[in-house]
């Protein structure tokens, strides 16, 4: 009786059999070992060995032309290579030309990210599923230089690390963000905003007031004559006062930093919270959108050199950009929906 072979190596998982292992299977079969014993000897699963024996077994003619079955490692290897060649995934590049043209147009003309182009097309069913590719594949086509868009044409990928407040000597100007309701943090309630200013090139330059709604991500860019307290107060009042009774529903709270321009913001009649000093991440929504604004109004350029129409175009672009976090809907679309729901609730 043949001795049972045992392997001291750990069992290999999810790895195809090699030609050497196929040779071992043939030799062990000749010794009379069962598939289970061969599996233990090679550190493989019994099913793997059984399938391989079936795959490599052929019928031969023996003495007196009597047929018999025998496993041949060469046959098993040939069948394996044939199956691998047949299952190789082919590129869909030439079958999704219309979608790629659409995506290139969105990325080049509208400055969308590849993910925004894919997500918006998928949400609005602009193409059949088989006529488009996923975000990962689209990025791969760009990396392979298969499109006219290059990586240098894409917006920078922003990466952030979580931060924790640190003790600082700077005094908070009003009610702390720690007292802000949890519904604001969870973005489940409409009407909570974050505010900041974008300063100009030098002291004599103008500035911009930016204010972003946390739930819908609607982003407003409002020109300021200067980066001072009175100018901020006046601009904010011009924005909120025309809303009349809706004012306290649309602007339930505003979160600001501790800049001097916001020193008297709590006198506006609105609920104001102040982030911890040197903690910009606590107003992350507004900071992110200021980064989008800087694509149009870069640092080092005088803000007064940009026309009001140009600033409005930058605002419109941000508010009409499909967002993955919004299920590829746009901030303007969601904001209008919230205003409509608010109007119905107040009737």
Chart the SSEs and their pairings.
Layout: H1 19-30, H2 35-42, H3 46-56, E1 57-61, E2 67-71, H4 73-87, H5 97-109, H6 114-123, H7 135-143, H8 182-185, E3 192-198, E4 207-213, E5 219-224, H9 229-240, H10 247-250, E6 253-256, E7 272-274, H11 284-294, H12 308-319, H13 331-346
Parallel strand pairs: 3-6, 6-7
Antiparallel strand pairs: 1-2, 3-4, 4-5
Q: How would you spell out the order of helices and strands?
A: HHHEEHHHHHEEEHHEEHHH
Major sheet details: 5 strands, mixed
Given helix and strand content, the structural type is alpha/beta
Average pLDDT value?
A: 87
Task: Tell me roughly what share of residues is in helical segments.
Answer: 25-40%
Q: What CATH architecture label of the largest domain applies?
A: 2-Layer Sandwich
The number of E-state strands comes to 7
Strand content: 5-15%
Largest beta sheet: strand ordering:
5-4-3-6-7
Number of spatially distinct domains? 3
In the CATH hierarchy, what is the class of the largest domain?
A: Alpha Beta
Distance between the termini: 92 Å
